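quick q for whoever's on today - can somebody do inverse folding on this one?? i tried earlier but teh output was garbage lol. tokens:
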């Protein structure tokens, strides 16, 4: 009987070893969810898309643009993506915007007495497909 208790003790504490709980740096978690926005823009028009606050950047730049940028709207102070097609261009274009956000959760690692926070970064993508007429 003593052998059984000893084995149980070893199994429980082996599963909760400190080495398994070490997290050296924030992990990157990609949502792999890409939001797709279809946008019709006139030849001399402009497209503006409000973005969530945080770190948004152009992941893959458009090809046929006069303006294609992420930044704060001077009138509203909201983070936006702004697109103006190249002069005289008609056809299709697209841009891919990435947005990263910090993410924190509690990771108990199966050991409730040693629960710790896990910090990570989530990345989501927005693909904007332009039709310029």
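ok took a stab at it. sequence:
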């Amino acid at each position: 009987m003593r052998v059984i208790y000893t084995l149980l003790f070893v199994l429980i504490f082996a599963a909760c070893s400190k080495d398994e709980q070490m997290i050296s740096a924030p992990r990157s978690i990609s949502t792999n969810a890409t939001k797709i926005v279809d946008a019709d823009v006139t030849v001399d028009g402009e497209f503006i898309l409000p973005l969530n606050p945080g770190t948004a950047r152009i992941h893959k730049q458009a090809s046929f643009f006069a303006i294609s940028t992420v930044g704060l709207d001077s009138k509203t102070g909201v983070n936006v993506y702004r697109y103006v097609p190249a002069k005289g261009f008609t056809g299709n274009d697209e841009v891919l915007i990435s947005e990263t956000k910090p993410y924190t959760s509690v990771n108990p690692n199966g050991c409730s007495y040693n629960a710790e926070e896990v910090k990570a970064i989530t990345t989501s993508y927005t693909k904007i497909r332009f039709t310029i007429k």
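fwiw Confidence is low (pLDDT under 50) at residues 7-12, 14-24. also The beta strands are 27-41, 47-50, 55-60, 65-72, 79-85, 91-107, 116-132. so keep that in mind when u check it
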